[in-house]
Amino acid sequence: MGNNISQHIAFLGCGSMNGAILTGLLAAGVPSGQVTATVRDPEKAANLAKRHGVQVLSSTEETEANRQAAGGADVVLLGVKPVGILDLARQISPALKPGTVVISVAAAISIDMLEAALPQGQPVIRSMPNTPSSLGRGVLSISAGTHATAELMEQARTILSAAGTVVEIPEDQVDALSAVSGSGPAYAFYLAEAMAAAGVKLGLEEDLAKLLATQTVAGAGYMLAEEGADATALRKAVTSPNGTTERAIATFDEQGLPDIIAAGAQAAAERAGAITKELDGR
């Protein structure tokens, strides 16, 4: 993978999403010399540099850190908290080369908002990754801005695919995608918590119940990751007629679990839209 990426990449902010992509890229073989990162805290900068072998600048120690990193990059990934993304975009605008593509991995910040904060004609791509990207098992969407050509979209796909599966979607589907894959890892963790709690109620020791739930959810995830895997087929294979699993699934259906999951995803998507409006009014 690394041999296919010749651009210099700047990660401005290394929170959970940008940090996950950075980790995935380096694990896939992207040379550390092609990567620059910035964080606020000097200690975190030193720790990241030591861990990954890349140049990491502290914006607290060097006030021009973000501009310096952005100015030397062909691709800039914006990864600070959503509330700070537009200020960061305005900060780096004078330093950007005209052809540099700006990829935002921030939730709730629309392409229109980004393009208004950047120089006229600057290529912008919006991405929504999820945290398994740090293991190369992520799902990362890409949505094209006004000036993001097919070539630039393919460039973004190549870079981001080091961290997982890349899907191209229109921006109006981002909130729905976020409700499934962006928030989705938490749903799986929530399921493991609930399974462990159920085990305790059935009389298992807490540590054993946690171990069983954790390894079962993780193992099921590996089965889903196999080529050609289908969740429905896998579920049916475990669900013998009139057996124990069938009784559990029937109870889930009777209790309305599918509707509960749909309602949660709907609430997540609606909240994403509301946050975008809140931030757009700043």
What does this structure look like?
- The protein is of the alpha/beta class.
- The protein folds into two domains: 2-171, Rossmann fold, CATH 3.40.50.720; 184-268, ProC C-terminal domain-like (ProC C-terminal domain-like fold), CATH 1.10.3730.10.
- It is built from twelve helices and eight strands.
- The chain has helices spanning 16-27, 42-52, 65-71, 82-92, 111-117, 150-160, 174-182, 184-201, 206-225, 231-238, 244-254, 257-280, and strands at residues 9-12, 35-39, 55-58, 75-78, 101-104, 124-128, 138-144, 164-168.
- Strands 3-2-1-4-5-6-7-8 form an eight-stranded mixed beta sheet, with helices on both faces.
- The longest helix is centred in the last third of the chain and has 24 residues, at 257-280.
- It is elongated, with a radius of gyration of 21 Å.
- 35% of the residues are buried.
- Pathway: Amino-acid biosynthesis; L-proline biosynthesis; L-proline from L-glutamate 5-semialdehyde: step 1/1.
